[in-house]
Amino acid sequence: MTSPLSLHGACRIADWGVIRARGADAAKFLQGQLTNDVLSLGPSSARLAGFCSAKGRLQASFIVWKSAEDEFLLACSASLLVPTLKRLSMFVLRSQCKLSDASSEVVLWGLAGADAEAMTGDAREWQRSDRDGAALIRLPEGAGLRRALVAAPIGVELDLHAGTLTPQFWRWLEVQSGVVTIEAATVDRFVPQMVNFELVGGVDFQKGCYPGQEVVARSQYRGTTKRRSFLFESDAMAAAGQDVFLAGTAGEPAGTVANAAPWPQGLGSSALVEVRLAALGEGELRLGSADGPALRRAELPYPLSLDAEAEA
Question: Please, what are the domains in the chain?
Fold first, then answer.
């Protein structure tokens, strides 16, 4: 794999889009739909949040920030933006909140390495600042490298080292961060805990009701989470939504690829894979079929205690 020195710079994030929520009730509306607290979101922070079905399954995941008075922007996978916008709009009813696709008005950039360090300084993860008219959000690190998201209105010129960081490298760093992004291929597949959402700050258990809240809370407090997401490496190319099996078995899949990206150099890929915890001790995991390419477990950048999960 590549040296981290080649993972510095900036690139356009073309596979993400932006939803705008605007109006006097925008904060209240989002508070009632997302897994994280929006009412307390101020101008100096951003949050990870999920949008669940009534059964507690994630329909989308967002990076959310307050862009103006009575206005919020939600960055998400472009592959599910249109259906998510349609579904969210069904719940607006009489709320003074207008939802729209702002992808053509806001340009998203990913920053990594020295460039991200220079622009974010001593900012903490999920802390937000304004720079030359753009929102700058520090993200969790990937592969030990500082990362940041820049959201700039169309027409705003930024002094970024564009082209030195490729979209492929950025995608790999996203996977290495351990923070799952829901894509079209994984809609309705995971309860938030299955993709470690509460471990990376994507769920607030004190905020009150939202679709699926009872299911999410029950999974947390009754210890019913029997599936988690882990970082794996493979010599083959993995893809979101792909099933994972125990080697040599003819049973049901042991897990699902949540996100995947090719290695920065050479053949192979890194993947965040949601796995049945019991399967981790039952044998080697294979990609796509029981005799498919092997998956090698790697270390997540945050603690996940399997002992605590097993006791639960």
Answer: 4-176 (3.30.1360.120), 226-311 (2.40.30.110)
